[in-house]
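Late entry, evening session. Most of the bench is empty. Finally got around to the prediction I had been postponing all week. Sequence below, unchanged from the version circulated by S.P.
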Amino acid sequence: MNKLTFLGFLFGVLVTPKFIHAQENQELAVEQSSEVFLEEYSDAFQENFFEGLKQMGIRNYDRAITYFLECKRLQPQNTVVSFELAKFHLYDKQLILAQEYALEALNGEPENYWYAETLVDVVDANKSAIEEVKGNLPWSNVALRGNLAEIYYLNEDYLTAKAMLKGIKTSKKQEYLERKINDSIAHQQKKLVPGIKPNNVIASKELNNVEGYTAKIESLLASASDNAKLLATTEEAMERFPSQPYFYYANGTALNKNLKHNDAIEILETALDYLIDDTPLENAIYKELANAYTSTNNTSKANMYLSKIK
């Protein structure tokens, strides 16, 4: 990994929400990193790149994007700039642009683990699947597929991880990863199988991807017979896939049914933070928020959310 790639990744970690409070440390990191910046980059590129990182660190995102776009103009093929733009647009929920830049970065350096991880984050946020973009990637690249397999394995999406290794000649490292994936799948199935009728077994796929959880939760919502199971399932889904607004909506619904209206309000408002262009779900969240506020005797808030329903 060259210095520019490392600096971009390092700063990307530092400016995630978990580390926003460490602003002074971020600024120090930029100052120290600039001292070791590679000399082959022009003064104009260096100035814009580090100013972009600095503006991201202090959350001036509009200014940050301006600087990175200038870097893009100066060096159109620079994958680190594409990487930074992908992360920025993902954070800003501009998923089409985020995917475009993530693919651009990964095509430039197919073996870069962090570029692959960012693409996976974008695909997940877009409620899509990696298979839908593989035609835009050097899919025969063994290192790329191995990185994707490892990323999905760490995300506990074992079936997708296994699919990433299918049909390629694996290295010893990847063979070891494949054994761990298979062991995880077997362990998951063993934990879930109750030892009675096969029809009662929940497919392991349900516990390893967004679609499986969504189908399971929809079934629980429709039956309305086991709210404790709905609550537990939605909490697990939110933990594994923390950017899916539907899971927050369903969890808020379960909390409302448990008469935990204030907790429901907090979760449902979080669902709105993650929501992107989904009017039916948006309306459902507004309705559930109205129910929660009505139950807490806050009629003005309840009416506000009812008025938002389209």
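Two things to note before I forget:
The chain is about 70% helix and 0% strand.
Residues 3-124 form a domain with the Serine Threonine Protein Phosphatase 5, Tetratricopeptide repeat fold (CATH 1.25.40.10).
Will write this up properly tomorrow.
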